[in-house]
């Protein structure tokens, strides 16, 4: 089926395709191209019979009615601009995901319910590590404050990360075992989460 992208949000990773006055919702994992979808783009897609959502979505290249004479210099500049735009979009997507992960962990400051994807866990670990390192170079007081602020959400996001691989959050206590505990937690933290709903809920978006 061929339709048009009506809307897409990088923050929620969700969008809508319209076709014959009907709307089909989709999520970013069904988008099969490298660049993010944009409003007004023509796409080819399938419809999930169970949910009615759009799946397996691709760009539709509109054929040109005439073959223009190509200018090598112009074509080269166009390719350079496309590459630069693609890199900008990629960086923006990473930045959006980083901000979303940090905000989620602070919103769930003491919340151990649900699941946390690898990106949410590692982006927050990066944020906490950088800030605590910076504070530790300033003075002991700031270092202690940073430690107190970040420890609760670091523990809760670790519990939710364990939930994502279908393990009980109580396994976080294994970190108390010197060296061995840290290695085990690290292994679980980099493990891929359950692709479907598990005992702790649906996959983190």
From TrEMBL:
One GO CC term, this protein: plasma membrane
Keywords: Membrane, Transmembrane, Transmembrane helix
Any Pfam family the entry gives: DUF805
TM spans (from-to): 121-138, 144-162, 169-190
InterPro entries, sorted: DUF805
Superkingdom in the source lineage: Bacteria
Name this polypeptide is given: DUF805 domain-containing protein
């Amino acid at each position: 089926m061929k339709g048009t992208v009506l809307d897409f949000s990088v923050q929620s990773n969700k969008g809508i395709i319209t076709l014959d006055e009907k709307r089909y919702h989709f999520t970013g994992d069904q988008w099969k191209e490298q660049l993010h979808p944009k409003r007004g783009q023509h796409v080819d897609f399938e419809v999930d019979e169970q949910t009615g959502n759009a799946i397996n979505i691709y760009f539709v290249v509109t054929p040109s009615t005439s073959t223009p004479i190509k200018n090598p210099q112009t074509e080269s500049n166009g390719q350079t601009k496309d590459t630069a735009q693609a890199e900008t979009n990629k960086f923006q997507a990473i930045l959006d995901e980083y901000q979303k992960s940090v905000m989620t962990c602070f919103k769930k400051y003491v919340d151990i319910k649900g699941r946390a994807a690898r990106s949410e866990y590692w982006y927050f670990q990066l944020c906490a590590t950088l800030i605590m390192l910076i504070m530790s170079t300033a003075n002991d007081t700031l270092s202690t404050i940073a430690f107190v602020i970040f420890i609760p959400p670091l523990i809760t996001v670790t519990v939710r990360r364990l939930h994502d691989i279908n393990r009980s959050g109580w396994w976080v206590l294994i970190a108390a075992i010197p060296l061995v505990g840290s290695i085990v937690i690290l292994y679980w933290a980099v493990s891929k989460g359950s692709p479907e709903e598990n005992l702790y809920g649906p996959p983190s978006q």
